[in-house]
């Protein structure tokens, strides 16, 4: 018997209650929009941090690329996160300008509008009451409301998933060419929203493929009888998907797969997610549904609805069975992944509402009026309670705590949902973002770098995204890895603070070490002078330092665990820049090698610094080629009268004495710049010797006195 027949492929006719559906959706969307506008524009807004800040910055980069018609750069703006969410506000930026507020409102309002259109259309298959209930559940969901006031990509994903469900069902097994093309278009947009899209539409996709291929089960055998036209339509579907999404995925797919696999193995463990085969893992998304998707009241209603539908499973439509199957499938798949987050299953929220809606529809159809009324009252009470909590009309109430089985929200369960944005109860003004940036804005250089000696995201991310569309280039760096720490000494500005509010616990050790090194380095060099002090809302203070244009070479000295030895070779490269000094620092048990450059004129080309550590005969045993300041201070930005400092870790494979030979390489002309002073005959300057015995010392080049 054909699979299509076994699922009772029957459409529900749109009746006179359609006007009620439209009115309900419009009223709910209007109320949702009012709450959004109030939160975004009229209430103190917390800074964007982490993924939200990254998505907004990507959005502005796409806007800049499109405005300048730099199409070739677009696939490489972000090679990990797909671009659909960040692209949504771009047309609106052309009218109102690119700001976080405009981006947040546009992305989320348009996505919610698309989601409601999809739920309206799905009423053809699930009924008008079901669509109304699903809309109410979705728009009163704690995580939907919470994410509507920040710049994330999960609301667009949820909207495209719902629309793809409708279009796949309308394709009638890929026999309707118009809906086949539309479903292919939205499938491509879906995977451009997020790579997990496929998991949320796999059940209806397989269902429609089974219909298209005429899969039959007969006498213990599965038979497939596709027609040539169907195969052609499936091929067209696949081609459109590739056409829509290929511009981003084709150049990035390898990196995306490697990154996802890496994050699956590492991120979950680092962030404290439960091991896969544990009770906490099995219940992770159940408790997520309580705290983030619904609340204890509505989750109880959902479980009762699901139980009712399972009891009456033979009377349940094939489409409702698809929804149940989809919910079970994604719950199992995401439970079996190491990296977990409440956002990951957001697209199931409308379908949770559909299950409740179908149960209510069933109760009404079979005249269970008292139970029907009870379901409606409970649903309204639960949804209104969520909205009241989100708008802070009522306080958030904790009802239980059990860290042994609850892996979210610190082991707590809440009566009317958990709202992550409540944790960010400070604003950019309280963190003095505008004041800090006003100092940088007065700097007349076209390229500026600033190191924030903290991994506090409410400081670092606003400083980055508020400068992303400046005419000058501002690079804001935080020492979130060990390798980034030495770069602080090359910065034009240093923001010194011990504030680590919201910092990831595994990053604090790096910023702590960076602060220790800065204090000791600046005590020796006096390279940075304080400009202004700030008081931050977490009770800490911050000091903004500015590097002097001309930095004196420090004297050789040893003081406790701090020592510095410098040589001043004075080698000149291409008659453009002089290596004023090369210094070796020992601080906190770490060896740092400093290059002290003095531009003799404004430089126009970008050169690469090549550093060869050789034996006494000039044979290279170790090489440290690099772009200046690890790429943050290209030589084309070097100007006469302003010294450039580079600092790197110094590591040796073996003890002994080595010579340092370095030069500048022109990648355009593919040649080394000529050297005046200490040239070894290969356009390399012999600038010093480093001997590693019981300690490490910087000595002058061979033939020069100590």
Strand residues, percent? 15-25%
Structural class computed from helices and strand pairing = alpha+beta
Number of domains: 3
The helical percent reads 40-55%
User: In angstroms, what is the radius of gyration?
Assistant: 31 Å
- Distance, first to last CA: 94 Å
Largest sheet properties: 7 strands, antiparallel
Mean pLDDT, nearest integer? 92
Number of helices: 21
Transmembrane segments: 20-42, 80-96, 151-169, 181-209, 230-250, 283-311, 318-337, 372-391
Domain Glycosyltransferase RgtA/B/C/D-like: 82-208
Protein name: Glycosyltransferase RgtA/B/C/D-like domain-containing protein
Main location: membrane
Give a quick rundown of the structure:
This protein is an alpha+beta fold.
Describe the protein in words:
It is a multi-pass membrane protein. The chain is built from 21 helices and 22 strands. About 45% of the residues lie in helices and about 15% in strands. It has about 700 residues and is α+β, with helices and mostly antiparallel strands. The N and C termini lie far apart (about 95 Å). The relative contact order is 0.07. Helix 3 runs parallel beside helix 20, helix 10 runs parallel beside helix 12 and helix 17 (about 350-365) runs antiparallel to helix 18 (about 370-390). It folds into three domains: about 15-415, no CATH class; about 435-545, D-Maltodextrin-Binding Protein, domain 2; about 560-700, Coagulation Factor XIII, Chain A, domain 1 (Distorted Sandwich).
């Amino acid at each position: 018997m054909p699979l299509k027949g076994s699922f009772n492929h029957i459409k529900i006719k749109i009746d006179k209650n359609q006007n009620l559906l439209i009115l309900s959706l419009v009223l709910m969307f209007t109320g949702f929009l009012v709450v959004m506008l109030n939160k975004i524009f009229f209430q103190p807004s917390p800074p964007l941090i982490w993924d939200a800040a990254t998505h907004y910055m990507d959005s502005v980069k796409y806007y800049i690329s499109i405005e300048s018609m730099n199409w070739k750069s677009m696939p490489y703006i972000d090679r990990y996160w797909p671009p659909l969410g960040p692209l949504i506000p771009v047309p609106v930026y052309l009218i109102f300008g690119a700001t976080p507020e405009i981006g947040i409102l546009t992305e989320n309002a348009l996505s919610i509008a698309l989601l409601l259109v999809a739920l309206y259309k799905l009423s053809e298959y699930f009924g008008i009451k079901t669509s109304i209930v699903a809309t109410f559940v979705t728009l009163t969901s704690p995580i939907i409301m919470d994410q509507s006031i920040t710049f994330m990509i999960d609301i667009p994903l949820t909207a495209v998933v719902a629309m793809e469900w409708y279009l796949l069902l309308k394709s009638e097994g890929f026999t309707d060419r118009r809906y086949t093309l539309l479903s292919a278009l939205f499938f491509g947009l879906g995977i451009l929203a997020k790579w997990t899209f496929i998991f949320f539409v796999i059940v209806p996709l397989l269902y429609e493929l089974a219909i298209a291929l005429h899969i039959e089960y007969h006498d213990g055998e599965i038979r497939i009888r596709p027609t040539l036209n169907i195969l052609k339509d499936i091929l067209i579907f696949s081609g459109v998907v590739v056409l829509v999404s290929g511009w981003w995925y084709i150049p990035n797919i390898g990196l995306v797969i490697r990154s996802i696999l890496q994050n699956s193995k590492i991120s979950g463990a680092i962030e404290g997610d439960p091991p896969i085969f544990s009770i906490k893992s099995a219940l992770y998304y159940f408790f997520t549904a309580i705290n983030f998707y619904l609340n204890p009241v509505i989750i109880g209603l959902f479980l009762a609805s699901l139980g009712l539908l399972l009891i009456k499973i033979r009377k349940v439509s094939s489409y409702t069975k698809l929804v149940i199957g989809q919910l079970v499938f994604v719950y199992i798949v995401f439970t079996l992944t190491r990296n977990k987050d409440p956002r990951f299953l957001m697209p199931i929220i409308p379908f949770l509402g559909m299950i409740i809606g179908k149960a209510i529809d069933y109760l009404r159809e079979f005249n269970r009026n008292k139970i029907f009324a009870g379901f409606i009252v409970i649903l309204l009470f639960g949804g209104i309670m969520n909205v009241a909590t989100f708008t802070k009309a009522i306080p958030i109430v904790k009802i239980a705590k059990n860290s042994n089985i609850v892996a979210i929200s610190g082991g707590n369960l809440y009566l009317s949902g958990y709202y992550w944005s409540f944790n960010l109860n400070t604003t950019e003004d309280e963190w003095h973002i505008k004041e800090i940036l006003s100092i940088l804005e007065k700097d007349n250089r076209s390229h500026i770098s600033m190191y924030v000696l903290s991994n506090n995201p409410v400081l670092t991310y606003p400083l980055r995204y508020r400068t992303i569309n400046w005419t000058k280039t501002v690079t804001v760096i935080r020492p979130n890895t060990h390798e980034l720490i030495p770069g602080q000494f090359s910065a034009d500005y240093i923001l010194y603070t011990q504030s680590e509010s919201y910092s990831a616990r595994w990053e604090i050790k790096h910023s702590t070490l960076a602060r220790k090194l800065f204090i000791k380095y600046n005590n020796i060099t006096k390279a940075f002078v304080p400009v202004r002090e700030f008081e931050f809302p977490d009770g800490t203070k911050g000091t903004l330092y500015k590097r002097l244009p001309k930095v004196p070479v420090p004297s050789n000295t040893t003081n406790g665990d701090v020592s510095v030895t410098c040589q001043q070779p004075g080698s000149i490269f291409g008659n453009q820049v002089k290596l004023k000094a090369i210094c070796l620092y020992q601080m906190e048990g770490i060896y740092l090698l400093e290059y002290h450059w003095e531009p003799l004129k404004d430089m126009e080309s970008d050169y690469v610094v090549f550093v060869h550590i050789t034996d006494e005969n000039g044979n290279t045993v170790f090489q440290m080629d690099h772009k200046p300041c690890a790429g943050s201070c290209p030589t084309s930005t070097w100007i006469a009268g302003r010294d450039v400092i580079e600092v790197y870790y110094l590591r040796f494979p073996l003890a002994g004495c080595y010579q340092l030979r370095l030069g500048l390489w022109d990648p355009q002309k593919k040649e080394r710049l000529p050297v005046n002073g200490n040239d070894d005959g290969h356009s390399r300057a012999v600038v010093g010797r480093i001997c590693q015995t019981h300690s490490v010392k910087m000595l002058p080049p061979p033939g020069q006195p100590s």
